[in-house]
Request: fold
Amino acid sequence: MGTEHTVRSFDEEITRLRGLIAEMGGLAELSAQEAVDALIHRNLELADAVVVRDKKLDALETEVDRLSVRVIALRAPMADDLREVVAALKIAGMLERIGDYAKNIAKRVERIGVSKAFEPLTLLPAMAEVATDMVHDVMTAYAARDAALALDVIERDTKVDAFYNSIFRNLVSHMIENPSTISSAAQLLFITRNLERIGDHATNVAEMVHFAALGTYPVEQ
Amino acid sequence: MTDAAYSTTTERFQKRLKQRYAAERRFRLLGFAAVASSVLILAFLLVSMTMNGIGGFQRAELRVPVNFAQSGLTIERSRLTDSDAVQALEQAGLATAVSFAAEQALGSQGAAQLGSEAWREVADRIIADPALLDRSVVLTLPASDDLASGLRGTGPEDIRELASSLAADGKLSRNFDAGFLTRSDATDPQLVGIWGALKGSFLTMVVTLALAFPIGVLAALYLEEYAARNRWTDLIEVSINNLAAVPSIIFGLLGLAVFLWMFPNMRSAPLIGGMTLALMTMPVIVISSRNAIKAVPPSIRDGALAIGASPVQVVFHHVLPLALPGMLTGTIIGMARALGETAPLLMIGMRAFVATPPDNFTSPATVLPVQIFLWSDEIDRGFVERTSAAIIVLLLFLLVMNGFAIYLRNRFEKKW
Amino acid sequence: MVSNQPTETMVPVKEASALPSDLTPKMSARDVSVFYGEKRAIDSVSIDIETRYVTAFIGPSGCGKSTFLRALNRMNDTIPSARVTGEIRLDGVDIGTMDVVQLRARVGMVFQKPNPFPKSIYENIAYGPRIHGLAENKAELDEIVQRSLERAGLWNEVKDRLMDSGTALSGGQQQRLCIARAIAVDPEVILMDEPCSALDPIATAKIEELIDELRGRYAIIIVTHSMQQAARVSQRTAFFHLGEMVEYGSTSDIFTNPVKERTKDYITGRYG
Reply:
């Protein structure tokens, strides 16, 4: 982005803000991946790690809030600086929600008592991969201020939604056929829902990336 | 991180600081010395002038009791209000009556030393107060110039002895001479007065002001506000600045060549003198007015223009009122200089012996500095004191003029 | 009033293009250049000014915004070496052909440093109407003075001391006095050249509030070096740089998403 601010400390604050967001993005992506991993391999320790990591995400979000408000009050940012700060504020919230959903998935790991051969479970890793890839790519788009990549991420949300619908139907029919597995299946429903929400929030982040870069929101399809 | 070698905490700095303070003290001392010496010189001038001049406000007078009722002087009272009352009194024998009374009081020697025109002063007093003719009064009449010298201790021995004996008898004394300020020029220092020259100066100043001020102010306004900035206006500016420095006698030559050629019959008139001095004063007024106009901040002009004032309205409603104090100051400086000018007026012939004060702008007159010059040329010692007294009058006149100017300037001073 | 910005129904203008013909601009400039001798201070500026908006001119020092402002009421005429080319129109009439005294009564100006006349408050306001002959008698003049002072928000503060000197007021009051003085001749346009730069924040806020109140009745153009002030006070903003008008559009667009890189660099503090 062109030249630096005449007042160097303004640049430093913006850089710090972006750094915090990047850190949050990394943590959120990691949590999402590890939560699904823990689920598939029934790794309770990994699940605990995800739960613990969520506190860090919360703390980071608070810090982004504080820094954003400070920048607005003291620097009176205009144009792209203003959009940058507003985007950072909103993206932090979204990433924190992604972290929450990952934590939610991790918490349900121990409550599931089914074998690996549980049929709907086979689709889950694929869905998770798409969702976590979205988070990864949207953070890449954020770092590079790449609106095109952001648009690409937004399009992928349809895939996640498709996965969700498919898994949902599967689970429902499974529950009808095997009522004894209802409690586990119900957990899986929630987990799938969380993954779908992660995809939605990644899409929201992509919209903010687009706004920060170009000043407009992507057109609804 | 401070570089201690170059900061203000070094010894070098301290030494330099001491030098600076020492320089301050020296400068203040010098300034004070300059002021003190100026004040001393001024004081010396004033004191010596006053000491010399105070005597000029006095004259030697003889006490002569006159009994008009018994003097045999008969004249109709109605004739005293005529314009030729003095001649009538002369015809009635006032002079003889006065010298007779003088002989009675002072002896023949003393009476011989009565001022030759003393009877005229008696005539003036009778015209002022006709009731005198019915009474017996003691008149204090001017002594002759020789007797006055004798009283001072100069001149022939016999006159000096006469003077001291008359003084011892209380018949001869030096009294305050109020008439000095009301009489006009004369050949006898005892009878001389400054009023003629004062009035002449006043009339001349009026002419000078009436000509120089409007022309100077309008010229300054035009040059500052309307004239384009080109070679011609630069030339004019240089010319005016030079005019202000031209020796005043040149203006006298100009007055002689031009004005007297135009009005050949008015050689000694305040009108001609005023015109000549106006030429001399105008450049000073133009320069100081231009500076006063330049000092008016452009924001006032901008404000007036922005509201839709025309250029003339801007000048007369806004610039002129603010520039007026400066203009007045410059005018007064110019007028004060003109008041004291002798050379140009001598050149145009305002050196006539003028025994009566001028009636109007075209009658012969003289001015204070010329009068002083003429008196200082006189051989008679009696004029020395009178000259110093005239100088004091001139200084007072200047003081009054300057005071009036400062009052005017303060009244018109506006803060912007 | 919640916001002083135009609603969606008003079309924001990004380039200095001509407005739809049914909205005749109050003042318009076409290809205006201003020269001081050989030096070109303003380079081919075209802009339309409407009465319903407050228009702000922003830009770094020496960019020509004040010079252009002064061209609008021909104050550059007072500078001998100044030359203005191009067309400036007031209500469609070329101002070069108008009587300059009348032009300046219709297009008033308020300066950076408050410059009340060294006369009484009453005289300051009454001077303009008096020289233009706007009042028949003293009663009408009194009314004009009162109305102008009321509109400038100064009446209550000075109504008991109208004969006091105008220069005895505080800085903010003096500036409002100058605004009242400009209003007194019933102008159609008011030009303000950095009116608040010599004032403290409270006086500045009062002037900004006053500008908001006067909006719509007079076409107001304000030159300011404070972007925050331009953002607060105006609905249209023009960015000047090195004598050119780089961008002209609605204030919210200029400050949230400017089109030109130069504009963005300036308002985000990346300039210089």
